[in-house]
Amino acid sequence: MKKDQKRRTPSPKDKTGIVTDRRKRVTIAGNLRPISMMKEFNRLVSIIERLRSKDGCPWDLEQTNESLKECLIEEVYETSDAIETGNFEHLKEELGDLMILLLMHTQIAKEKGKFNIEDVLKSADEKLTYRHPHVFGKKRIKSSQRVVQEWEKLKLKEGKSVLEGVPKSAPALTLAAFVQKRVRKVGFDWEEIKDVFKKIEEEIEELKEICKDGDREKIELEFGDILFAIVNLSRFLNIPAEKALKKTVDKFIKRFKKMENEFKKRGKKLTNISLEEMDKVWEETKKYD
Question: What are phi and psi for residue 87, nearest 5 degrees?
Fold first, then answer.
């Protein structure tokens, strides 16, 4: 070894097993460029702080966690659309919009003295390492099914309900599927798909009977039971109910617009056309799906 060469001491590992460089004091994982990444993240945090400062943007200053809730939901849907189209440039943009909203919510909480971005990151860090003892601990699990089972054991060990954290503000069909999947993990579920079909038939018969009485509240509850049972069926068929219904709605819109255009070509308005004539053209449009 030459005199000007120094023996390099291996970089230490933190409790998660990820290497940490002493000199840069940043975490190195895979091929990430930590310094550049942290610089961009800190810059975005600073921008959000500036927007919320007294010399910032009036609109941003007016926002609250409550007022930004709908914005967050809309951005999640837009991100979902980007994923469905497979457009990664669009996805990058939508993930950025989500990041902005997450930091806005955090900044508002910081101003109220509730928590800051470090608290949020620390909480995520602790949850991930605690929920993955097979990665950051000595336990080893090879199948994803076993991983899910271990997660549920950890939740029960924490004394939490199986339905703890169910997103009640989620769309009803998505929420129903979420709840059903949760209770299935502890064995509360139909054994065979034929039982689900039977349940749907029973619920429909119950609705028919209640409709005779005209009690709107009871009718609404029974109708909800039918939808819940249908979501169960979608789960057994491994078809997301929300996605399936959206496809049907999109298909209906596409067909209806075709029908409208057809009558426009004929110089007719839908308000002056009989249902029988509309049905005839409707059936014709289905041929071009």
Answer: -90, 100
C-alpha span between 209 and 222 (Å, rounded): 10
Non-local CB neighbours of 197 within 8 Å, separated by 6+ positions: 233
Give which of 232, 264, 231, 257 is closest to 245, Cα–Cα: 231
Q: How far apart are CA 215 and CA 236, in angstroms?
A: 32
CA 179 centroid distance within chain: 14
Other C-beta atoms lying within 10 Å of the C-beta of residue 103: 21
What are the φ/ψ torsions at residue 128 (nearest 5 degrees)? -65, -45
Q: Which residues are CB-neighbours of 190 under 8 A, at least 6 positions away? A: 196, 199, 232, 236
Of the candidate ranges 44-48, 92-96, 139-143, 146-150, the one whose mean pLDDT is the lowest: 146-150
Q: Is 9 helix (H, G, I), strand (E, B) or coil?
A: coil
Give dist(CA 264, CA 145) in Å, integer: 55
Percent of the chain with pLDDT over 90: 63
Calpha distance 128→133 (Å, rounded): 9
Residue positions counted in the chain: 289
Model pLDDT for residues 155-188, shown as the tens digit of each residue: 777 777 888 888 888 889 999 999 999 898 888 9
Looking up tokens 């018969």, which residue turns up?
205
Pairwise CA distance, residues 48 & 42, whole Å:
10
Cβ–Cβ < 8 Å for 52, 59: no
* Bridge partners, 27 (sequence order): 20
For residue range 187-220, list pLDDT tens digits in order. 899 999 999 999 999 999 999 999 999 999 999 9
Q: Residues 246-277: pLDDT tens digits?
A: 999 999 999 999 999 999 999 998 989 999 99
